[in-house]
Specification:
three-stranded antiparallel β-sheet; mainly alpha; globular; about 240 residues; about 55% helix
Length: about 240
C-alpha cells in the first residue's frame, strides 16, 4: 500500500516539517558529494553502530542516535521517509506546536535507535535514516486522527486501485508489517548484515504512542479545534 495523501487539512503552515525534509535532503546531497567511499565512511562514523554504543570503546558514538536521523543509504530510502513525513508530519506539528514537535520527533528517533540496539547490541552494521522518528509521527497521527482518510494506492492482483482508508487501519497494517518482519528476522544472519531496521520502526512507533499524551495540545490550548478528519477537502499540492 502506497499512501498518496491524507484528507485532513491543518490550520498552520508546517514550516518545521518542511525544514526537516530540507535538512534531510541537504544531508543526502552532501553524502553524494563525498563519493561512494566517503559516503560509506560518513555513515560508519555518524550512523548508529550498536556494538560501539554498548561496548563503550568509542565515546564519540554517543552522538550517533541524533546524527543518524539525518543520513540515508540511498534515494529510495530518502524518498520513502520524506514522503511519509510530508504526508503525516504537518498535522502533528499543527497539534503540538513547533517546539513540542521537534522535541517529540527527536525523542522518537532516539527511542527507535535504543530499541534496535537493545535487540541486537553487538551488531557492527551502522543504522541510518529518519524512519524511526517518522514512525513516532505515525503513532501520534493514529492516536489523534484515527478516522482521517488516507488516499492509498493498493495493488489488487494486476490492477491498481485508489482507496480511501481510515488512518487507524492504514497505520496499523504498516506497524504490524514492521513487527512481523522484525520478529521473522530474529536470529537470522540478515539482521547482522544490514537491511531494514524493523525494530527501530517498532521502537519509534511505540514511543510515539506513549509520548503523544505528553506533547499533544489540550482542547483549551487549541480552542476546541481538533481538525475535520472526515471532511474530504483536498489540499493544494498534495500529490
Amino acid at each position: 500500500m502506497i499512501p498518496l495523501r491524507d484528507l485532513n487539512p491543518s490550520r498552520t503552515t508546517p514550516v518545521l516539517t518542511w525544514a526537516l525534509i530540507a535538512v534531510n535532503v541537504l544531508c543526502f546531497l552532501f553524502e553524494l558529494s563525498l563519493g561512494t567511499g566517503g559516503m560509506h565512511e560518513l555513515i560508519e562514523r555518524f550512523g548508529v553502530v550498536p556494538d560501539a554504543l554498548t561496548s563503550g570503546d568509542s565515546p564519540g558514538s554517543y552522538v550517533t542516535p541524533l546524527t543518524s536521523m539525518f543520513l540515508h543509504g540511498g534515494f529510495l530510502h530518502l524518498i520513502g521517509n520524506m514522503w511519509f513525513l510530508y504526508l503525516f508530519g504537518d498535522n502533528i506539528e499543527d497539534n503540538f506546536g513547533r517546539v513540542r514537535f521537534i522535541i517529540f520527533y527527536l525523542a522518537c528517533g532516539g527511542a527507535a535507535a535504543a530499541m534496535q540496539v537493545a535487540i541486537d547490541p553487538h551488531a557492527e552494521i551502522p543504522m541510518v535514516g529518519a524512519s524511526g522518528a517518522i514512525a513516532g509521527v505515525l503513532g501520534a497521527y493514529m492516536t489523534l486522527y484515527p478516522r482521517a482518510r488516507v488516499v492509498t494506492l493498493v495493488p489488487i492482483f494486476i490492477f491498481l486501485q485508489f482507496i480511501e482508508l481510515p488512518a487507524v487501519f492504514f497505520i496499523a497494517v504498516w506497524f504490524l508489517w514492521q513487527l512481523l518482519s522484525g520478529l521473522t528476522s530474529l536470529g537470522m544472519a540478515s539482521l547482522n548484515q544490514g537491511g531494514v531496521a524493523f525494530f527501530a520502526h517498532v521502537g519509534g512507533f511505540v514511543a510515539g504512542l506513549a509520548l503523544v499524551w505528553l506533547f499533544r495540545r489540550t482542547p483549551n490550548e487549541t480552542h476546541g479545534w481538533r481538525g475535520p478528519p472526515n471532511v474530504r477537502i483536498p489540499r493544494e499540492n498534495s500529490y
